[in-house]
Write a structure and sequence with these properties.
single chain, alpha+beta, 4 helices, 4 strands, signal, Small peptidoglycan-associated lipoprotein
Length: 127
């Protein structure tokens, strides 16, 4: 009986602890260990650079128009971040705009340069 009670207590504790580590879907995957106040993150895959031309063009234009906001642009490369399985699940290419650790804009896959610029500009205009 004593062993059964101990086993039951351990199982309930394990269940309680494992159910508490779920992250909200709108939290930034990269920000599990840090708070991101304002950040633009560009997910790139150098193996498919031809699909990312619109993203690079948009980033260049945005850097010219908003140099301070894009000063700390974070680039996450698929080939260098294979160690993080959560990053691998992200679609490439992608741009994510984060404000107060919440994703406010996310553009993934094939997109036109003007669409990227418009979405990012709208998001950072509220900063």
């Amino acid at each position: 009986m004593k062993h059964l009670l101990t086993l039951l207590m351990l199982a309930s504790t394990a269940l309680l602890l494992t159910s508490c580590n779920d992250l909200a879907a709108d939290k930034v995957v990269l920000a599990e260990d840090r708070f991101i106040e304002k950040q633009i993150i560009f997910f790139t895959d150098e193996r498919n650079i031809s699909k990312e031309v619109a993203y690079y063009d948009a980033i260049i234009e945005l850097k010219n128009e908003y140099p301070e906001d894009l000063k700390h642009l974070e680039v996450v490369n698929f080939s260098t971040d294979k160690s993080n399985p959560k990053i691998q699940s992200t679609s490439y290419p992608a741009i994510v705009v984060v404000d107060n650790n919440q994703v406010v804009t996310k553009i993934t896959g094939k997109a036109h340069k003007n669409q990227i610029i418009k979405s990012v500009t709208h998001a950072i205009s509220n900063w």
